[in-house]
Amino acid sequence: MTKPAMRVAVTGAAGQIGYSLLFRIANGDMLGKDQPVILQLLDITPALPAVKGVVMELEDCAFPLLQGVVVTDDPNVAFKDVDCALLVGARPRSKGMERKDLLEANGAIFTVQGKALNDHAKRDVKVLVVGNPANTNAYIAQQSAPDLDPNCFTSMLRLDHNRALSQIAAKTGKPVSSIEKLCVWGNHSPTMYADYRFATIDGKSVKDMINDHDWNANTFLPTVGKRGAAIIEARGLSSAASAANAAIDHVRDWVLGTNGKWVTMGIPSDGSYGIPEKTQFGFPVTCANGKFEIVKGLEIDAFSQERINVTLDELMGEREGVKHLLGK
Ligand code: NAI
Q1: Does residue 188 carry a catalytic annotation?
Q2: What are phi and psi of 155, to 5 degrees?
Q3: What's the ipTM?
Q4: Residue pair 119/111 in contact by the 8 Å Cβ criterion
Q5: What pLDDT, in 10s, does the model give residues 103-127?
Q6: How far apart are CA 39 and CA 44, in angstroms?
Q7: Where are the alpha helices (DSSP H) in 14-148?
Q8: 244: Cβ below 6 Å to ligand 1?
Q9: pLDDT tens digits, residue range 186-243?
Q10: Ligand 1 in contact with 117 (CB < 6 A)?
Q11: Taking the model in full, what pTM does it have?
Q12: Which of 120, 188, 213, 324 is catalytic?
């Protein structure tokens, strides 16, 4: 018997990540090859003609799983009865724009979208915020949706996780698929802390295999942290296909489970590892039955604590910068 369709909202549908993302969702890469979907696409009014062009292309793919597409500039329509919402659209940093102004512009978008999710989405909606600053935007949306479980709101650190996986695969000469128990702590920004201390390949410690603290501190972490900037430098545009791929990985694992494997998700802290509650922070998690769970009890050594403090301080600063938008 065919399953009922799941409704998936995607914001920023006319953008470059949208262009890499929508076709893969419609193809079943995110929710499963037996799961029909209805796409509910949101963008700002001037971008709607471009969204309609993308919809024509979606139609021309004749995806068997795609049961309908809604196009709108109204978040209340886009989020109506959605099971998943991928919040990709955000205000990019323009030339001369201060960080404060960026937080402010995005704060305005994510308070409105959080409220619309609160009012219209399914009660167990799975929200992934991709648009930057992703962690703080997710925090704002969550705080604007008091009737939804805070755990409905997550932010994307999976691209950092995947970047770290491929750097370790290259360093060790082992396939990406053999690496387990890697994680990335903190903010989706160059301050994030990719941590391979617990990682294993075929049961062996990656830390022991690499055995090079200098490579960790001075090559690995800066390479992963500055990868986004390196891609802009090379391509003249920010990462799009890899960001879309990471979004697919994140939601797929959340919905379908990880079979005990660790992945990284930005989620509201439950106070673990001294991270203040509700802070959207990258943690190692496992997923089962549509829920994520933080991997607890990991030892945090002095170097790691220092790194975690840096990324947490940055997030707390961002949170302070948007406090007034949340009436705090
Ligand atoms: P883009 O500029 O190509 O597209 C953004 C789209 O969002 C545009 O179509 C724009 O009209 C739309 N938009 C703007 N305001 C909106 C609103 N209020 N409601 C709905 N749509 C709105 O940007 P791209 O490359 O697709 O990136 C999107 C976001 O993802 C950016 O903020 C980028 O920094 C972020 N990003 C995050 C990553 C992560 O790992 N978390 C990785 C890569 C990008």
Answers
A1: yes
A2: -130, 160
A3: 0.99
A4: no
A5: 889 999 999 999 999 999 999 999 9
A6: 16
A7: 16-26, 48-61, 75-78, 99-120, 134-143
A8: no
A9: 999 999 999 999 999 999 999 999 999 999 999 999 999 999 999 999 999 999 999 9
A10: no
A11: 0.97
A12: 188
